[in-house]
Design brief:
single chain; three-stranded antiparallel sheet; about 60 residues
């Protein structure tokens, strides 16, 4: 299933949910809601992008 994700740079990406390797909190000093999150994909190039917490929370509800 494709997930629609909006990055902190206002890019809209469609990512296959099976391609997400892991998600990492960018600034651990902040609350989850205040921090941004880096999403890493499973491809060879080690692609990643940064999303706000609101996108992370929205994706949890979709999946």
């Amino acid at each position: 299933m494709l997930l629609r994700v909006q990055t902190t740079d206002d890019e809209v990406l469609y990512v296959n949910e099976n391609q997400i390797a892991y998600v990492k909190k960018v600034d651990t000093r902040l609350l989850d809601e205040e921090s941004t999150w880096q999403v890493f994909l499973t491809d060879v190039a080690e692609t990643s992008f940064i999303i706000p917490y609101s996108e992370l929370k929205r994706q949890k509800q979709v999946v």
